[in-house]
Specification:
Blueprint lengths: L1 E3 L12 E5 L13 H11 L5 E6 L7 E16 L2 E10 L4 H12 L21 H18 L21 E4 L14 E4 L1 H9 L2 E3 L5 E3 L8 H5 L18 H10 L6
Parallel strand pairs: 1-3
Antiparallel strand pairs: 2-5, 3-4, 4-5, 6-7, 8-9
Length: 259
């Protein structure tokens, strides 16, 4: 992709994180979901392929290669009286081959490591700040892609009027405890069930059935109780399904009996 300093939006790319306005001429009103804008939205939502970024200064006809960037967010926002696609980008300062290797380490099932009992945590000391950022960025995209952007618990993919899908990537063994950025330590969940899973209302058995905390005295119990025993909506690829080690650790953290 490329940006122009003297383009209709005066794209500025200073710093490690910057904003890029999508494709569309101001005189034609609101920006549309053109092929280019859709590709960038898809990139923000699920892709882990690096973006090669080029910039054309106002005083030059030549494009200048600016390295790889990651599209970390895409929004449809009001700007100067019209709706535009606004993309938040981060420089990666990393070579394409290393980017692809780090992304692959998030995508690959832990069983491929030849270890039936994978570690719960990542060796953060083994990664540079940029490498951690790449893996952290790859995790939600990989998880949401594995579940086809549908909630593993309710199977839904609610969509807002502007096209935003209500799906988030949850760590089974939590990130705040250095839980691994690996697809088998992840679940794609809607915001309600992400909260319920992290809060301990919900857990998952080794055979991928939903467990519900036995707290009928609390408001919300009846809604969650209806899910008891339901099967998760799982990735077709078995190597991307949750690993029993992470599910068991989550149950233990929240006081569920072994399952």
């Amino acid at each position: 992709m490329k940006a122009r300093e003297d383009g209709p939006y005066g794209d500025e790319i200073d710093g490690d994180r910057f904003t890029y306005i999508g494709e569309g001429v101001p005189a034609k009103g609101d920006q549309q979901l053109t092929g280019a804008n859709k590709a960038l939205c898809d990139q923000a939502d699920r892709s882990t392929v690096p973006v090669y970024f080029f910039y054309q200064p106002a005083d030059s006809d030549a494009l200048r290669y600016e390295g790889l960037v990651d599209i970390v967010d895409a929004e449809y926002v009001s700007r100067d009286g019209r709706m535009v696609y606004q993309f938040t980008m981060e420089r990666l300062e990393i070579e394409p081959a290393e980017f692809e290797a780090l992304s692959a380490s998030v995508s690959e099932g832990v069983a491929n490591e030849g270890n039936d009992e994978p570690p719960l945590t990542d060796d953060e000391e083994g990664f540079t700040a940029v490498q951690r950022r790449v893996r952290s960025s790859a995790f939600p995209k990989t998880v949401k892609s594995a579940y086809d952007s549908r909630c593993a618990i309710c199977g839904k993919a609610r969509e807002s009027p502007n096209g935003t899908v209500d799906i988030e990537a949850a760590h089974i063994y939590p990130k705040r405890e250095n839980g691994r950025d690996n697809v088998r330590n992840g679940l794609a969940l809607c915001r309600l069930h992400h909260w319920a899973f992290d809060a301990g209302w919900l857990a998952v058995s080794d055979d991928y059935r939903i467990l519900v905390a036995d707290r009928p005295d609390l408001e919300g119990y009846e809604e969650f109780a209806a899910l008891e025993g339901d099967s998760l909506t799982l990735p077709a690829d078995e190597d991307r399904r949750p690993h029993a080690k992470f599910l068991a650790a989550h149950r233990e953290r929240h006081g569920f009996e072994s399952a």
